[in-house]
Design goal:
Layout: E1 2-6, H1 13-24, E2 27-30, H2 31-44, H3 52-58, E3 64-69, E4 72-77, E5 80-81, H4 89-98, H5 102-118, E6 121-125, H6 128-132, E7 138-143, H7 146-159, H8 166-182, E8 195-198, H9 204-215
Parallel strand pairs: 1-6, 1-7, 2-6, 7-8
Antiparallel strand pairs: 3-4, 4-5
Helix pairs in contact: 1-9, 2-4, 2-5, 7-8
Bound molecules: 2'-deoxycytidine-5'-monophosphate.
2'-deoxycytidine-5'-monophosphate binds near residues 95, 126 and 127.
């Protein structure tokens, strides 16, 4: 059984997907983390998002794999656990820019499909229901308004003691949505057979229950 959850940045996909996976005893696969690891690889090499030729060829040398430690996903980039480096806004924005590249996507989609073929998964991303797992038994398109998503992100940063400007966060979210939805290859869009869930005014548990009900 495969459950695909797609949606824009900050809709709560990873929190929800993790809980659904834990309740059902499935493996949670965070595909955004793979695009983030690839982005980190380019940032470390000083490659700019505009250097599309370099991105096209150099992605072949980034060896990205996934391991599980206590059911937690660990992303390994050329032998190094990079979980601690991929959650920044800089890496997220670079991931959005570099994930438009066809070679980057091909490489990571293959890895994602292999994982899903070997076990029951809850996988989240942008193109899971449309491209990666078109035959997933359950597909959800999870979204929330940009204002609500910015507020959630702002509160997360505040809780960590990080200064942030909520208007800037919302502007970044809108820019990232636009890029993810309008790119040529595998843009973010709802699969025809996906269930649309707007989490703007739902609690985390309500969304989790909605997906568990669909799975049942
Ligand atoms: O879900 P996230 O914020 O960790 O994803 C970071 C970026 O990676 C996102 O802006 C677009 C890209 N991405 C993608 O193109 N396809 C996916 N399946 C997952 C993420």
């Amino acid at each position: 059984m495969n459950i695909a959850i797609d949606g824009p940045a900050g809709a709560g996909k990873s929190t929800i997907a993790k809980k659904v996976a834990s309740k059902l005893g499935y493996i949670y696969v965070d595909t955004g983390a793979m695009y983030r690891a690839m982005a980190l690889y380019f940032i470390r090499l000083g490659v700019a998002p505009t250097e599309t030729d370099k991105i096209d060829t150099m992605c072949a040398d980034a060896d990205i794999s996934i391991e599980y430690q206590n059911r937690e996903q660990v992303v390994v980039l050329n032998g190094e656990n990079v979980n601690g480096y991929i959650r920044t806004e800089e890496v997220g924005n670079m991931a959005s820019s570099t994930s438009v590249n066809g070679n980057v996507r091909k490489k990571l989609v293959e890895l994602q499909q292999k994982l899903a073929a070997s076990t029951d998964v809850v996988m989240d991303g942008r193109d899971i229901g449309t491209v990666v797992l078109p035959n997933a038994e359950v597909k959800v398109f999870l979204t929330a308004s940009s204002a609500v998503r910015a507020e959630r992100r702002y509160k997360e940063l505040q809780a960590k003691g990080v200064e942030a400007d909520i208007k800037q966060i919302e502007a970044d979210i809108i820019e990232r949505d636009e890029r993810d939805m309008t790119r040529e290859i595998s843009p973010l869009k709802q699969a025809d057979d996906a269930t649309f869930v707007d989490s703007s005014y739902m609690t985390i548990d309500e969304v989790v229950e909605t997906i568990i009900d669909l799975a049942k």
